[in-house]
Specification:
4-stranded mixed beta sheet; globular; single chain; 8 strands; 2,3-Dihydroxybiphenyl 1,2-Dioxygenase, domain 1; 2 domains; 14% helix; mainly beta
């Protein structure tokens, strides 16, 4: 087991049910640059972090358990209806790692500008990728703000 965290816990830490901890850690660590904060491999669990973004990964139990909080049928892709936006400083590093691994992108990359005020918009360079269980991750690099063109 790796050592416990030495920094404050974020207010939101999604816990994702997964099918294989080794497969998920290979994706999250080797391709996306997350590190293990602490883990319990014998229970199929790891808490991971990258630049202040944290997730908990837990292998899904196929049998009855009081610790399994399913709200519906479990089938891939998991996490339907949600994507997790993760801000990064350099999107190209992730794109290169995914490309080297021949890991397909779900969407993008693209440059996109969003209105945030009547006269201002904020821009991002972004792409979406699915993890081994189908969770949709949107990596986003800020392009700053600009006035809205007339």
């Amino acid at each position: 087991m790796t050592s416990p965290r030495s920094h404050p816990r974020p207010s939101l830490v999604p816990e994702l049910y997964i099918t294989s901890l080794p497969a998920s850690l290979a994706f999250w660590r080797e391709l996306l640059g997350f590190r293990v904060l602490y883990d319990r491999p014998e229970q199929g669990f790891a808490a991971i972090e990258r630049d202040g973004v944290e997730f908990m990964l837990e292998e899904y139990e196929t049998g009855p358990s009081e610790r399994c909080w399913d709200t519906g049928a479990r089938e891939k892709p998991y996490g339907r209806g949600i994507n997790f936006e993760i801000g990064v400083d350099d999107l190209d590093i992730l794109l290169a790692a995914l490309n080297r691994a021949a890991w397909p992108l779900f969407f993008g990359p693209e440059e996109r500008w969003y209105r945030i005020a009547a006269d201002e918009e904020t821009g991002v360079h972004q792409f979406l990728v699915q993890d081994p269980d189908g969770y949709l991750l949107r990596f986003s690099q800020s392009l700053g703000r600009r006035p809205i063109a007339a």
